Amino acid sequence: MNPSKQVIYRKDYQPPHYWVRSVDLAFLVNQQDTIVKARMVFEQNHEASGNDLFLNGVDLDLIHLAIDGTELPEKAYEKTNQGILLTDLPADFTLTTEVRIFPASNTALEGLYQSGAFFLTQCEAEGFRKITYYPDRPDVLAPFTVTIIADKEKYPVLLSNGNQISSGDLADGRHYTKWLDPHPKPSYLFALVAGTLAHIEQSFTTSEGREVALRIFTEKNNIDACDFAMQSLINSMRWDEERFGLAYDLDEYNIVATDDFNMGAMENKGLNIFNTKYVLAKQDTATDQDFINVEAVIGHEYFHNWTGNRVTCRDWFQLSLKEGLTVFRDQEFTADLQSRAVKRIEDVRYLRAAQFAEDASPMSHSVRPDSYMEINNFYTLTVYEKGAEVVRLYHTLLGEEGFQKGMQLYFKRHDGSAASCNDFRRAMADANDVDLQQFELWYSQNGTPQVYVNEIYDAKAKTHSIEFRQLAPPNHQGDGPWQAMHIPVKLALYDPSGQPLSLNEQGDEQLIYELREAQQILVIRGVEQEPVSSLLQSFSAPVMLFRQITPQQLAFLMKHDRDEFNRWDAAHQMQAQIIMARYKAMLQEKSYSCPDYFLESFRHLLLDQHSDPALIAEALTLPSLKSMTNQLKDVNILLLHEAKEWLVKHIVQSLEVELLSVYNQNFSTEPYAVNSTQVAKRSLKNRCLWYLMQGGKKDMARLAMEQYHQANNYTDRMTALTLITHQQVPGFEDLLGEYFTEWQNNALVINKWLSVQATIPSEDTLHRVKQLMELPVFSLKNPNAVRSLIGAFCGANVTRFHASDGSGYQFLADQVIALDQLNPQIAARLVSLFNDFKQFHSETQEAMREAMQRIHSVQGLSANVFEIVNKALNQA
Ligand code: B3K
Ligand code: ZN
User: Fold this and answer.
1) Which ligand is nearest to the CA of 380?
2) How many CB atoms lie within 10 A of CB 403?
3) What is the whole-number distance in angstroms between the Cα of residue 188 and the centre of ligand 1?
4) pLDDT, position 750
5) Per the similarity annotation, which family is this (predicted)?
6) What does 156-219 look like in DSSP terms, one character per residue?
7) Which among 555, 657, 677, 680 has a CA at the least distance from the CA of 607?
């Protein structure tokens, strides 16, 4: 088998034979090629036995290799297409190398590559080996010195990690800059940028008194859209000092934004590289959600400076050590700055729809995976989002103070080194003197834990008993049997008037009940009347909770629960119940009509004058199909979609007057600002408009047209355009045309235009998508464009992707095959859209399987795509 398609196991981890004590790099950047010279000082690791050293190196033209100044002849080492093996080495030595690379033809966007008028790098996870020969593994940390030399006119900006220590002019119109990053780091955090870029700058003084120059670089035409990102960076730095006591540790913090990036952003030490999507934001081109995303991603990458960079990962199996923890930190940042309840609802909605699905799919893996073929395939929702939930569990169990004590001990023990998930767990346990042995299972067991609840009220004894039973997820993997997990269940009980009951002798009205056994019973005493329980408040653990709950109890919780999250969840469950009931009736060709209590409680939600409008908007947003299909088999996805549409139509027909009045009430005439009050009102207003438009009435279309033309902000404008286009209101093609003419030079804005069209629920959409792919604004080489057009069609246009003639699946297969030649990481993301195929009924499954088989049979498939398709087909 091709060496890049080998499976790597966590259990095979071996410490490195050599440490790198320092690295000096020199880059001679040219348009045609780049020369990379390296000088590395190695020292044997006495705790590992071995005097050989493997240097990773892929697609490099080796020009020269010497040890302690003596050139090595080719026969002195073993060279493959993955690297060089050096043997019989002394305990200490200096290695010098020189290689040539070709960044301009690098379409995988990994290593050094070109974007517009500049060159840049992406090294995580294994891109550094495409730049120079090096032990490219996260547990080898070294201080880096980097010199960049290039033509001054073509490449005026030359950046790398750390602080710039010198710069100057050279002969032949060239110039150089020299950078020192004193903090030892693994190669995946290396970065370099060279080219023509504009920038904005501000200064920040840390709590330790360090003055830091903050800069954001973009191409010149975007420089007016960076101010919000700069403010977000300042907010992040301040927040990390205040909440975590962590301050920045260099004199510069540079951010570079590029249109050509495989993911959102990258936390390279002192030189973050960002997808423009998460930097650029202006009133006329960014939605409220875009602004919030910019703030969150700027925060996320900044927070990595401590959780990821100062303490990094021992090996890639520990990825969640930095990602889960940093997602938790960015979630808390957003919760502290925006609305905590809204943030929690959005995160859980995403987790349940996407991560639960991943955990039930052929790609299911534990938060700390046991094996991988291609590490880039494991930057998953499980590692990130479930990983963040696991970190949140510590916080729930230990409280803010205990959690922060654990964090401090973690930094004290591991600052400047590479650690493991176990190290983190130990720090949390030791700092708080608690036993977190069983907690290990959160890292080692895959699948979503299932908790079944049974409640009994005993009127005579005045007790309310809640029995919890943990069951193994159906797709449990691993050698041993599944074991019960440590699950904190936050709960409250309410009496029939909605008053919270005291749950113990201390009079607590809220409890964290810790499950540790497969079966446990909680008995609450002194309960005068049968109560209604609110379980798993704030979603206190990432589990599926199954309980018998009546619509009346759900309506009660929607009204009385003090936990905002569970109030939303009750609404959500009621909606899911109705859609499922209709779907089941349709399957059996029976009739089912919408119960009055549903409309009544929906009306109550809509007209609630006391709650945050953002929370109301969330409660009015029906569950996604994805979140409902997770637990089902033989799903007829088109029928389920129809059932949901039916409910929507029913809501509009019954509540049109109310929807219209809430729409009007939340129409703001104030000057636009991105603050939580305005964002909340816009979200509720636009949710109402969404419903109104689903009714298909002409006067509602007129309302959307008015909103489109009169809006003073992009959220309102884009919502209107989307609704007008999706409903194919006469004139929508003209609007799309005008939009294109106005924005054709703004890639991000045009990407939205592509997505709007890719998601039109109409028979000719695939044809339209294929036509849009021919436009110069689209390129298979640009990941944002691919995600916006192909990704949106296959991932968000249910009826067209799942069209019964299989055309959607064929299209996806064609695109994956074509993309794999250019950019395997993006191809692998796209092919993952097939991963839920086993949930569907046999015809759909078969058509999806055929498309995957066609991909699988392509010669020379990347390890990225192969790993995913192979798993899916083998487990079918
Ligand atoms: N650490 C990077 C992700 C790298 C992905 C490599 N395929 C961004 C982040 O999580 O902050
Ligand atoms: Zn991250």
Assistant:
1) 1
2) 21
3) 10
4) 98
5) Belongs to the peptidase M1 family.
6) -EEEESSEEEEEEE-GGGEEEEEEEEEEEE-GGG--EEEE--EEEEEEEE-TTS-EEEEEEEE-
7) 657
**Dist CA 368 CA 373 (whole Å):** 15
Query: For ligand 1, which residues put their CB under 6 angstroms from it?
Result: 124-125, 263, 265-267, 300-301, 304, 323, 376, 379
Asked if 59 and 32 touch (Cβ cutoff 8 Å), the reply is no
CA–CA separation, 464 and 457 (whole Å): 4
Ligand 1: distance of its center to the CA of 390 in Å? 19
The atom of ligand 1 lying closest to the CA of 297 is 11
User: Of 623, 616, 635, nearest to 688 (Cα)?
Assistant: 616
Specify the residue with its C-alpha closest to ligand 1, atom 5. 124
- Alpha carbon 345 to its chain's center: 16
Domain made up of 200-305: CATH architecture: 2-Layer Sandwich (3.30)
- Contact call for residues 41 and 21 (beta carbons, < 8 A): yes
What pLDDT is recorded for position 378?
Answer: 98
Contact of 852 with 873, CB cutoff 8 Å: yes
Catalytic residue among 110, 124, 126, 301: 301
Q: Which residue is it, tokens 């020969």?
A: 133
322 alpha carbon to ligand 1 midpoint, in Å?
10
**Is the confidence at residue 876, as pLDDT, over 60?**
no
The answer to whether the CB of 22 falls within 8 A of the CB of 143 is yes
Q: Quick one: fold of 551-695?
A: Zincin-like fold (1.25.50)
Distance CA 781, CA 417 (A): 37
Question: pTM of the predicted model, to two decimals?
Answer: 0.98
Identify the residue whose C-alpha is closest to ligand 1 atom 9.
266
What phi and psi, each to the nearest 5 degrees, are found at residue 684? -70, -45
Question: Helix 340-350 and helix 564-587: axis angle, to 10°?
Answer: 30
Cα 272 to middle of ligand 2, angstroms: 11
Contact 138, 316 (CB under 8 A): yes
Report yes or no: 633 and 586 within 8 Å, Cβ to Cβ. no
Half-sphere exposure of 414 (CA within 13 A, CB side): 29
What φ, ψ does residue 479 adopt, rounded to 5°?
Answer: -75, -50
Kindly report whether the peptide bond that precedes residue 851 is cis, defined as omega within 30 degrees of 0. no
User: What are the extents of the domains in the chain?
Assistant: 1-196, 200-305, 318-547, 551-695
Task: For 317-353, write each residue's pLDDT tens digit.
Answer: 999 999 999 999 999 999 999 999 999 999 999 999 9
Kindly list the protein residues that place their beta carbon closer than 5 angstroms to ligand 2, a single-atom ion.
323, 326
Q: Looking at the CA of 191, name the nearest ligand.
A: 1
> CA torsion sign, 540 to 546 to 548 to 554?
positive
Question: Can you tell me the mean pLDDT for 673-700?
Answer: 96
Query: What percentage of the chain exceeds 90 in pLDDT?
Result: 98
Give the closest residue to 80 by CA, choosing from 139, 19, 6: 6
d(CA 793, CA 799): 10
**CATH number for the domain formed by residue range(s) 318-547:** 1.10.390.10
**Which tokens hold the place of 33?**
């090629």
Nearest atom in ligand 1 to 323's CA:
10
* CA of 267, closest atom in ligand 1: 11
Q: Which of 240, 258, 39 is nearest to 133 (CA)?
A: 39
843 is catalytic: no
For residue 583, what are its two tokens?
């779907």
- Do the domains spanning 1-196 and 551-695 agree at the CATH topology level? no
Residue owning the nearest CA to atom 4 of ligand 1: 124
The strand pairing partners of 188, in sequence order, are: none
Domain 1-196 has CATH 2.60.40.1730: yes
- Residue 757 — φ and ψ, nearest 5°? -75, -35
Of 516, 541, 515, residue with least CA distance to 389: 541
Q: Tell me: pLDDT of 3 over 80.
A: no
Nearest CA residue ID for atom 7, ligand 1? 376
Atom from ligand 1 closest to the CA of residue 327: 10
Contact 203, 213 (CB under 8 A): yes
